[in-house]
């Protein structure tokens, strides 16, 4: 179960909250990028970036010199993963909405110093973005590992919100002669585009060609 | 032109920066949701939400009681819009990346008090998410308008980053016998799903049925 803290207890739209830990894993595991929020020089900064999960720890990484990573190290952060599933078209402007699944994780980002955890986290990050590639391509060198900062964030404090289904209109608006419903937003992988530098005829591995968007819709 | 400030000047990957204002409009206008970053009780908070643009002002809105909106009002915020366009599959783990278009806007969020600007902003928000719906459905009542806080953010301080194309591998890795290229990520609207409460045979308006994802690849 996800425990409610002042900032994960849902204020608005409580019916959209999910309190089971599996719902959190489902939202995180289905994603490709997150939005990392940090406070830099006193102001918020929101950066799109990759992430990975091992058990109840979320990992983000970046170049050792990146400003967002430096601001996040040892500091309070918020990581948000959002899937937009549809536009909810209501009978009034006011009740327009979106169908979505989102997770927000709050906590202090710990710099990963342990070499084994560092590599395991990078592997998790790689698998999240491109499953199967870690074993298929050249592994990181010691120099490349040293150039990459990895931050760990506990999933102890998190909230999950999900909205699904048709619009919720005001009772008297259901009689209006307007169409209402959901316009789905669908995300999928397209056909792999070979690097022009690749020798002609290089086969596309099945873990790339056969990849499906995980758990979307 | 977008002027460089300490936080919009790109530190890493300078070649991905775009300094023309049209690039900023293109990224913003193609999006459906943004991630709004605020500082609440001293810690960052990143919330997915809708937005709209009129000229060089970005608008976000929310319930008057929402914690994120209260934290943002009159305070420093960061709004980020990200389009994920593809997974960049390199010949080494280290050079894996993503193709994307993203915009980050920084500034102080101004609460919109002027009634005309308030309605104009809500219309822009509505058009961004669901073009054509404002004129097709019941307009907001005075009570609904009062329940909605709108915040304005100048586009004066913003940065745009774009990555496109195949992987950039280390020279010596191009000889490795592995496939490399881009796995495109494509986002599209699905077939409209009618509200079960709708009278059977209600036609789907063309502005919904014929809608295409704006500027997505």
TrEMBL record, chains A, B:
Pfam families xref list: Pyridox_ox_2 (PF12900)
PANTHER family hit by this protein: 5-NITROIMIDAZOLE ANTIBIOTICS RESISTANCE PROTEIN, NIMA-FAMILY-RELATED PROTEIN-RELATED, FLAVIN-NUCLEOTIDE-BINDING PROTEIN
Organism: Sinosporangium album
Organism taxonomic ancestry: Bacteria, Bacillati, Actinomycetota, Actinomycetes, Streptosporangiales
Signal peptide stretch: none
The name this protein goes by in its record: Nitroimidazol reductase NimA, pyridoxamine 5'-phosphate oxidase superfamily
InterPro entries: Pyridox_Oxase-rel, Split_barrel_FMN-bd
């Amino acid at each position: 179960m996800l425990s409610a803290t002042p900032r994960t207890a849902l204020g608005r739209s409580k019916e959209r909250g999910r309190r089971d830990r599996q719902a959190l894993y489902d939202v995180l595991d289905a994603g490709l990028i997150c939005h990392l929020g940090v406070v830099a020089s006193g102001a918020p900064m929101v950066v799109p970036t990759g992430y990975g999960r091992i058990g109840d720890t979320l990992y983000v990484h970046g170049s050792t010199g990146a400003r967002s990573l430096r601001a996040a190290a040892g500091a309070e952060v918020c990581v948000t993963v959002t899937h937009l599933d549809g536009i909810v078209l209501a009978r009034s402007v006011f009740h327009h909405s979106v169908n979505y699944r989102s997770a927000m994780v709050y906590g202090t980002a710990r710099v990963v110093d342990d070499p084994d955890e560092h590599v395991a986290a990078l592997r998790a990050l790689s698998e999240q973005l491109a499953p199967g590639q870690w074993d298929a391509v050249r592994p990181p060198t010691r120099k490349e590992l040293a150039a990459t900062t990895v931050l760990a964030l506990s999933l102890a404090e998190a909230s999950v919100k999900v909205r699904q289904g048709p619009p919720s209109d005001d009772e008297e608006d259901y009689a209006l002669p307007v169409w209402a419903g959901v316009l789905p937003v669908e995300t999928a992988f397209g056909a792999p585009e070979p690097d022009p530098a690749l020798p002609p005829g290089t086969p596309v591995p099945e873990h790339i060609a056969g990849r499906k968007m995980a758990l979307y819709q």
